[in-house]
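[step 3/7] fold_predict: job queued, chain A
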Amino acid sequence: MKAAGVLRRWAALGRSLGTSAPVVDWTPASDMIGAAERDAAASQQVLNRLLATSGVHKFPRLGDPLAFDFGAHRWLRGSREEAWSDWLEWILKRDGDGRRVLRLFGLKPALRGTRSCEIQREFSTENGRPDLVLRLGHATLVVEVKTASGVGDDQLGRYNAWLNTASASLGLILLAIDEPENLTTTGWRFCSWEAISMGLRTWAAEWLRHGRLIEAALTLAFCGAVEQNLLGFGTRLNAPRAARYLETWLGREEDEKKKS
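[step 4/7] structure written:
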């Protein structure tokens, strides 16, 4: 039977059923959307105040990265994971202090002797190509970067097996938006993009105070790309999450200032 005949036959069958679409009351859904929009509008006002505070006190001359639309940049919006790890590697090398790098990934800097940190991208091993291999003296740390694709037990298991052959292994870090569930492989730690972006904001603020304007600006651009394109803070309905995020970071900065 030709395609046109198939379509006519299905059309006739549909007419023979004689059913009508059920009437759906969309009032509850409309009420929920309206409530979410009102909450977003109120949170946007709070967020605007936080952005102004951050821009003036933390990033003078530059402004807070959440105030700029990084979602409009096609390379930042749709880039592959290699681009994110390349950029992250560049920022980490701008500091080069192994203890600060470990703290950024949520690890205790229990290093002795050297403070240097050498970084290799997609280091080739017999068990695969980890995204970032960090050499801190004789110690080795692996960071696997994920933005959109998933990670499996096999991949983490292979990297762990390679790390077990390295001297003074510092373990395997899985950097992702959310912590994956149902993985049986052990020996890895989760680090969120949210935690990394907050930590790099602090680095950028410090570099800006010391006159390292270009490094601070490029790091903040990376933070803005992470926050808007990976964490989803660039949309109006996500204003409540963005406000809580920025308020948390500013609170941490104030606590650290009091300690010092």
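[step 5/7] annotate
Residues 121 and 132 are 5 Å apart (CA to CA).
The chain has a mean pLDDT of 84.
exit 0
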